[in-house]
Amino acid sequence: MIKYIRFDQQFDAARLQQEVARLETAEWHAHFNRRDYEGDWTTLQLRSLHGRLENNAAVQVGTMRGDNAFRDTELLAQCPYHQEVIDFFQIEKTSVRLMKLDAGAIIRPHHDHNLNYEEGEVRLHIPVMTNPQLEFYLEAERLPMAEGSCWYLNLSLEHQVINAGPTPRVHLVIDGLVNDWLRAYFDETQHQQVTMAAPQPPPPSREDQLLIIAQLRLMQTATAEKLADEMQAALPPAG
């Protein structure tokens, strides 16, 4: 199982920062899962459910290709270099966001269930702005994620972030589905790849399952509603 990859690809952080600066007047939305952080953790949607700016849910939806629920938002048209970076990855994208963690904020240790290469859905991180005091831990290993670098992270593993620095951290975060292009790209030898034995992840709690069900219902598609109904029926009793 791949733990993480630091890709050989390097993007122009200054161009990304210029475009983010032009979006500062846009409305950043608080991350939907408020249990997992302290301080301000906010997002701007470049691609979202139905292309809506206020919809910052990011469901792992590899089985829902036919629903075509994810669309580019109006903000992406203002960011031609972000579009170029996104297009570099020749995969089907679901959610694409700018994610900002303000100075002094923390993201508590947590797992994003089933979000990994082996299960068919990936999350790619491109740091746009960061600082030396930013601490990103994946399974207790601190990853030095420089501006303009590009990473695949197996986020079904435990991870946490602490912004102990004086400035916000902003990442471009791309979610998408594994295909032959991505398999070939992952296999390129110049990337820095770290693997590990496949862990046994903890089962999602009842609260996590309720959160997933709520996100599925936000998609407003027949497939999502069916999956939400099935999950609802299988929920363990409260208490």
Task: Report on this structure.
This protein has 239 residues and is of the alpha+beta class. The protein has 2 domains: 2-198, Jelly Rolls (Sandwich); 203-239, no CATH class. The chain has 5 helices and 14 strands. Strands 1, 2, 4, 5, 6, 8, 11, 13 and 14 form a 9-stranded antiparallel beta sheet that branches. A 5-stranded antiparallel beta sheet has the order 3-7-12-9-10, with no helix packed on it. Helix 4 runs antiparallel to helix 5 (222-233). It is globular.
Short précis:
This protein has 239 residues and is α+β, with helices and mostly antiparallel strands.
List the helices and strands and how they pair.
Elements: E1 2-6, H1 13-22, E2 29-30, E3 37-38, E4 41-49, E5 70-72, H2 80-88, E6 93-101, E7 106-110, E8 121-129, E9 134-138, E10 141-142, E11 151-153, E12 159-163, E13 169-177, H3 180-186, E14 192-195, H4 206-218, H5 222-233
Antiparallel strand pairs: 1-11, 1-14, 2-4, 3-7, 4-5, 4-6, 6-13, 7-12, 8-11, 8-13, 9-10, 9-12
Helix pairs in contact: 4-5
